[in-house]
What we know:
With about 120 residues, the protein is an alpha+beta fold. It has one domain (about 5-115): PH-domain like (Roll), CATH 2.30.29. It contains four helices and seven strands. The strands form two sheets. Strands 1-2-3-4 form a four-stranded antiparallel β-sheet. The protein has a three-stranded antiparallel β-sheet with strand order 5-6-7. Helix 1 (about 15-20) packs antiparallel against helix 2. About 15% of the residues are buried. The model has no long low-confidence stretch (mean pLDDT about 90).
Amino acid sequence: MKQEFRISRKNYIGSYICAVFFCWTIVVPLIVVIYTEVNVRATKYIVDKDSITYYYKFLVIKEKKISKKDITDISLTQGLIQRYFKIGNLHINTAGTHLMEMVWIGVENPEKVRELIK
């Protein structure tokens, strides 16, 4: 059972609001929209029965896979706007390092995704 998740466009609502304020420049909104679309379309988070994977494919391909048995902690952070839109960031820690191993940004329904990963 493999499930894919993507970054929510709602995570970039602040960027869109900023772009509206600078709409007279045309360049700023264009950059914001292109940056957001590239991030949303190029990033995938994949959960299968044995592992989780961060996958990014745009000009380069980045892939990081973590076995579920190596995960020691999954923490959730949500800002005020993220809580309103029911999105959040998952910080996944593994054994053998004190740093966050992987961060999933702007995931919709992060509590359910965290439970799916556990």
